[in-house]
Amino acid sequence: MDGKQAALACQRAEQRATGVQVGVMDQFASALGRRGSALLLDCATLDYELVPFPEDVAIAVIDSGEHRSLAATPYNQRRREAEAGDPKRMRHVSSEIARVHSFVDAMRGRDFGRMGGLLKESHQSLRDDFEVSTPNVDALVKRADAIDGCYGARIMGAGFGGSLIALVARDMTQQFASEMGRPVLVCTTADGAFVK
Known about the structure:
The chain has 196 residues and is α+β, with helices and mostly antiparallel strands. It has a domain at 53-187: Alpha-Beta Plaits (2-Layer Sandwich), CATH 3.30.70. The chain has seven helices and six strands, in the order ααβββααααββαβ. It has helices spanning 3-18, 25-32, 75-83, 87-108, 112-128, 135-145, 173-180; strands spanning 37-41, 48-52, 57-63, 150-155, 163-169, 184-187. The chain has a four-stranded antiparallel beta sheet. Strands 1-2 form a two-stranded antiparallel ribbon. Helix 3 packs across helix 4.
């Protein structure tokens, strides 16, 4: 079993255990991530590419304080709506795919302002078109975006609470964490956890 097969097996196990039709991005990152790189994944084809991640910025994960079980949220409904061609849901999906490719281009060009702007656009789409944000999360995204050194923030994962991510200047991460007023984990890239 290689890393790709392991990621798919983990996705199936999570879907069976939770009853939620989760995607495969987390499992791919866990199995195939590499130190110094972001993982660009096409979820339709499962093609992936490692893209160098700039050392001058960090990803900060912010706990919203809204903890939830995805099985108790409309997550599966949103997914069904997107698969059925609902215009708002499809607008989010198609615009998010375009944003991901623009983000990779901006990352390769070390255009941190553009990367942050794309995160902000992504949050707006998740809030307005996919409708998975909450008032609390929206307020925290607004707070993060106002802190010096933060290029942009958005809800992460399946939404409905949970966590946010922010792109922050690496030398400003401590100040950012202090000003957020919520638990913050500053992340670094790492090798995946897959063991042969």
